[in-house]
């Protein structure tokens, strides 16, 4: 690294901002020149951007600064996560004034080298007022860049291009593997649920009347809803839909109420063995509550189904409630509403397929085993995705400390994939 220098970004590139968007819609009619806005950049976390929602015509371009392909776009304001987006224009065009533009001086800096380096710069380190996150141009221009000779920059950029493309492909394959595992479970579930037309189809309202399901309540506590300052470090668990992860309750997501405050709540008290259904905001996740607590308090996004196991096995019901036979019913309800929720009154209209108890037991046992296998496969792929994300960060670190070679990158990719 003896030939490396450390330079301000402003020494390596022209730092500027875009133009205010033309207000006349006619300037976008039959346009051919991309006008990149923050919304376009928001669709790409990192990498190349080749299209925009809006395109200016010849009249619209007049008087605007037109930037060349290879210009890096850097959001100047917005949510802190958005400020970390880094994209490179692959076509020339015009840019919104809400975006910083970084155009490399070709004799001193390779544009893709700068793009990759900027991926290592956290917006949090540049933002001065976190209440209103924004980054001004002098702060961007002052970013310190470890800078090797231009040929080395190009070598590093090529290695990272190839490595990141391979990582992206590996992540797509991992995602497909997870989806395939889930589709296997869903297909088997559907086959089992639909295998016998003689099985009863019964509305929840009727199941409650029969006593086969002995309780069905949500956590809508009305005026008794706990205030933020009433939650404590330990006590009676209070859970929301976000606590359902991969078909189980993650108590790390729980909040807690003191036993005294919990004793004042009369509704939405779930018990061990209850089937929990997320009916609000994130609709659909289902889990069986497994707990040693006398009761767990549900938030407004959860409903419990309490079964009489002589007639309906909770293990069977939990599987049925993620089958197409059930999900299609609440999806139809949501199509007719602007709100992403399934009210408890509507849930009582839904039909449940109720096989004989021995068939329920057999179905649940088979699906439990398949679900466990599916989850193990999915977990392997999730770990791979995590490893690939970590590899990206490691390669970037190696690139800007002079340690990256094509051979070492290939070896690391082979190991991670």
Short structural description:
By secondary structure, the protein is of the alpha+beta class. The chain has helices at residues 9-12, 38-42, 58-61, 111-118, 137-141, 150-193, 204-210, 259-262, 314-320, 324-335, 344-347, 357-399, 406-416, and strands at residues 5-8, 13-17, 33-36, 46-49, 54-56, 72-75, 86-89, 94-95, 99-104, 144-147, 200-203, 213-218, 231-239, 244-245, 248-249, 255-257, 269-270, 275-278, 286-288, 296-298, 302-307, 351-354. It folds into 3 domains: 5-147, Alpha-Beta Complex (Adenine-n6-DNA-methyltransferase TaqI, Chain A, domain 2); 158-181 and 375-416; 200-354, DNA methylase specificity domains (Adenine-n6-DNA-methyltransferase TaqI, Chain A, domain 2).
- Which regions contain 5 or more consecutive residues with pLDDT less than 50? none
CATH architecture of the largest domain: Alpha-Beta Complex
**How many domains make up the 3D coordinates?**
3
| Ends distance | 30 Å
Fraction in beta strands: 15-25%
Strand order of the largest sheet: 2-9-6-7-4
Helix segment tally: 13
Helix content: 25-40%
On the 0 to 100 scale, the average pLDDT is: 90
And the CATH topology of the largest domain? Adenine-n6-DNA-methyltransferase TaqI, Chain A, domain 2
For the record, the CATH class of the largest domain is Alpha Beta
- Content-based structural category: alpha+beta
């Amino acid at each position: 690294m003896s030939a490396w220098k450390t330079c301000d970004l402003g020494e390596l590139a022209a730092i500027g901002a875009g133009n205010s968007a033309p207000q006349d819609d006619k300037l976008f009619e039959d346009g051919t020149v991309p006008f990149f806005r923050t919304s376009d950049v928001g669709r790409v976390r990192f990498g190349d951007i080749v299209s925009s929602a809006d395109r200016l015509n010849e009249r619209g371009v007049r008087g605007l600064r037109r930037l060349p392909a290879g210009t890096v776009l850097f959001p100047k304001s917005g949510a802190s996560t958005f400020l970390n987006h880094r994209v490179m224009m692959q076509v020339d065009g015009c840019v919104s004034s809400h975006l910083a533009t970084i155009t490399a001086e070709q004799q001193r800096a390779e544009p893709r080298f700068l793009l990759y380096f900027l991926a290592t710069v956290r917006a949090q380190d540049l933002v001065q007022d976190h209440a209103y996150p924004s980054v001004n141009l002098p702060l961007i221009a002052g970013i310190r860049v470890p800078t090797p000779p231009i040929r080395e920059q190009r070598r590093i950029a090529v290695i990272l291009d190839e490595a990141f493309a391979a990582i992206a492909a590996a992540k797509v394959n991992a995602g497909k593997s997870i989806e395939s595992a889930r589709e296997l479970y869903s297909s088997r579930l559907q086959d089992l649920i639909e295998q016998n037309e003689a099985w009863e189809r019964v509305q929840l309202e009727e199941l409650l009347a029969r006593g086969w399901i002995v309780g069905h309540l949500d956590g809508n506590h009305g005026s008794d809803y706990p205030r933020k300052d009433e939650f404590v470090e330990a006590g009676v668990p209070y859970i929301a839909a976000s606590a359902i992860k991969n078909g189980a309750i993650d108590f790390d997501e729980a909040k807690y109420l003191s036993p005294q405050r919990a004793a004042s709540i009369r509704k939405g008290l779930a018990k061990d063995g209850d089937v929990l259904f997320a009916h609000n905001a994130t609709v659909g996740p289902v889990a069986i509550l497994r707990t040693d607590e006398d009761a767990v308090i549900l938030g407004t996004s959860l409903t419990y189904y309490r079964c009489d196991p002589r007639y309906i096995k909770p293990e069977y019901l939990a599987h049925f409630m993620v089958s197409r036979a059930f999900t299609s019913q609440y999806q139809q309800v949501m199509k007719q509403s602007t709100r992403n929720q399934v009210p408890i009154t509507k849930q009582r209209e839904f039909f449940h397929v109720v096989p004989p108890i021995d068939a329920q037991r057999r179905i649940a046992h088979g699906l439990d085993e398949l679900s466990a296998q599916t989850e193990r496969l999915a977990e392997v792929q999730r770990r791979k995705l995590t490893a690939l994300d970590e590899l990206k960060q490691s390669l970037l670190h190696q690139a800007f400390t002079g340690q990256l070679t094509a051979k070492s990158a290939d070896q690391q990719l082979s190991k991670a994939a």
